[in-house]
Amino acid sequence: MREDEVLTKQARREGRTTRWLVAYPRAVPVGIFLAITAITSLSVFAIERGEAQRDDSLMREAAQSVSSALDRRGATSSSYLRAGAALFATVDDVDLDLFRRFVSELRLDSEYRGADGIGWAAAVQPSGIPDFEAKMAEEIPIGIKVSPANSGEMHFPVTYLEPDTARNRRALGFDMYSEPTRREAMDEAMQMVRPTASGKIVLLQEGADDAPGFLIYMPVFDTSSPGRDLKGFIYSPFNAQQFLESALEIGSLGGRGVRLYDGEADPENLLASHDPDFSTGRILRREVRIANRPLLLEIESNRANMLSTMSMITLIFGLALASLLMLLARLLTQQAKEDERAMKLLEEQNSIRNSLARELNHRVKNTLANVLSIMSLTRRRTDDLDTFADGLEERVRALSATHSLLTQSEWGTTPVRAIIEEELAPYVADPERQVELTGPEVNLAPNDALSLGMAIHELSTNAAKYGALSTQEGRVSVNWNLLSENLVQVEWRESHGPEVSALREPGFGTELIEKIVAHELKHPVDLKFESDGVVCVLRVPVRSRGEFRIRANPYGGKLTSS
User: Fold this and answer.
1) DSSP bridge partners of 257
2) Which Pfam families match (predicted)?
3) N or C terminus of the chain: which is more exposed, having fewer CB within 10 Å?
4) 218-246 pLDDT, tens per residue?
């Protein structure tokens, strides 16, 4: 592709862009701002969506980690209880020494954190309660009594609970089968013969504290008897909060909130929680099973309910860019409008220059034609060079005076009064001369003003030499009035001057008025030499501006006329 073709296409593209900027000076900047804002919003949306997906992935990882840790804690406890059940099923009687040897042999490590120990609840018939209390008094002399007292068919009082602490001793003697939640778990454990967790309870060892917890039961049957009689339960009590926190030590929580419920996510069912100082409302729920009991694990996002740092940076940068581009588009729009105005002004000036050149050529030709006509008439009416030169000079001066008026009006319209006053200036200013001018405000076109000026000059020169302006008693009155909106009549009347001979031959001025002026005005001139003085009636066209103006500024500028 040739270079000139490339430049032409580029110029066309720039021209289209400029036209858009000029045609829509407000819409284009606003459109650019809205477009960049929309792109920024989409970018922020994409970033936020990616951040939300990343946060969901991290929440799932955290939930998996915590649930795995909880499951591992429950499985470890269940394994210990199964081992204890297998041991106790083979002996005739579970006494304190046996129980303590068993617990010490377990060597409970960190995997058992969160539990309050391991306990034994022997099965006691109602009739065997006194013997049970007597035996317990021998082994643990603290006055243990089975409570609460009831008439149930079977009792399962807390017999031993290791480690042997003051806190754990609060639970000794408590009949766990007397409490509905514990009994439900114990019945299920007997039926399924496997470790079974209870629902939400408050451990006896908590004392006045109402911290929730739960227990895991494992039934122990007498394998030596044919009916597999139930000997009791080996169990582990758990403080739910400690149980959850022990799992969180190895869980990748990452500052997120976590809650553990026994059932639905309801404050009444809350077992334990680890809540940060904020709430985002973005929650992931997952079911976990602890000793065959379903619990609900809830993970709450730590992602604040506001835009991420990357989104804020993108938003601020996008809005700044949109504002900058809008301002730039606005400046370009103003520049385009100024360029367009400049181009129109150049075109206007070029048009004016061409019109002025044509008008000047036309006026110069007219003026030269008038001068040639004056010279021709003057030459025919004079016999010597001096008279010819003087006459020609006076008439050229008269043309020059009218030209000065036209120049002052920038070649627009010129008032009739100003033309007459200019030609009669020497006589109007003379207090000994009587000159009267009357008529309405009427403006004439430039060519018509020149013709009227020549006629008044000839009439005033003739009056000064031979007529009313040659004596002190003489009087000249010039009256004009509109015959129609397109025609004004100017009447020159002399009186009280020297008597005019009826046989007087027409002179140069008469011939100039009747031929040149009449031709230029396109109306006949009525010139009479009455005995009292000269009377001349001229009819001058009153043309509208559109008939003689050079051009009108289409952009609201000043009207330039010929």
Assistant:
1) 300
2) CHASE, HWE_HK
3) N
4) 999 987 777 678 999 999 999 998 888 88
Instruction: Please provide the average confidence, as pLDDT, over all residues in the chain.
Output: 79
How many Cβ atoms sit within 10 Å of the Cβ of residue 166?
8
Q: Is 22 helix (H, G, I), strand (E, B) or coil?
A: helix
Q: Helix, strand, or coil here: 226?
A: coil
- Looking at residue 562, its pLDDT comes to 43
Beta carbons within 10 angstroms of residue 235's beta carbon: 31
The mean pLDDT value for 167-186 works out to 91
Phi then psi dihedrals of residue 132, to 5 deg: -60, -45
User: Is the distance from CB of 541 to CB of 330 less than 8 angstroms?
Assistant: no
Distance of alpha carbon 281 from alpha carbon 258, whole angstroms: 12
* Other CB atoms within 10 A of residue 511 CB: 15
Place of tokens 């954190």: 113
Q: Which residue has the higher pLDDT, 352 or 121?
A: 121
Is the CB of residue 176 less than 8 Å from the CB of residue 206?
no
Query: Using CA atoms, how far apart are residues 285 and 278, in angstroms rounded to an integer?
Result: 18
Q: Position 524: which residue type?
A: P
CB atoms within 10 A of CB 240: 23
DSSP element (H, E) containing 373: helix 309-381
pLDDT tens-digit map of 389-440: 666 666 666 666 566 655 655 566 788 898 888 888 877 767 767 888 999 9
Q: How far apart are CA 177 and CA 219, in angstroms?
A: 13
CA distance linking residue 473 with residue 494, whole number of Å: 11
pLDDT in tens, 243-290: 888 877 655 566 788 999 998 989 899 999 887 766 777 888 999 999
Residue with tokens 């002052």: 408
Q: How far is CA 222 from the centre of its chain?
A: 82
d(CA 546, CA 559): 10
> What SS3 state is found at 441?
coil
Beta strands in 36-173 (DSSP E): 118-122, 158-162
Peptide bond into 163 cis (omega under 30): yes
Number of helices and strands (H, E) in the chain? 15, 18
Q: Is 437 in contact with 421 (CB distance < 8 Å)?
A: yes
Q: If DSSP codes are grouped into helix, strand and coil, which group holds residue 540?
A: strand
pLDDT of residue 181: 93
Q: Taking 90 as the threshold, does the pLDDT of residue 216 lie above it?
A: yes
Are the beta carbons of 434 and 474 closer than 8 angstroms?
A: yes
Ordered by where they begin, the domains of the chain are 11-306 (3.30.450.350), 370-561 (3.30.565.10)
End-to-end CA distance of the chain: 50
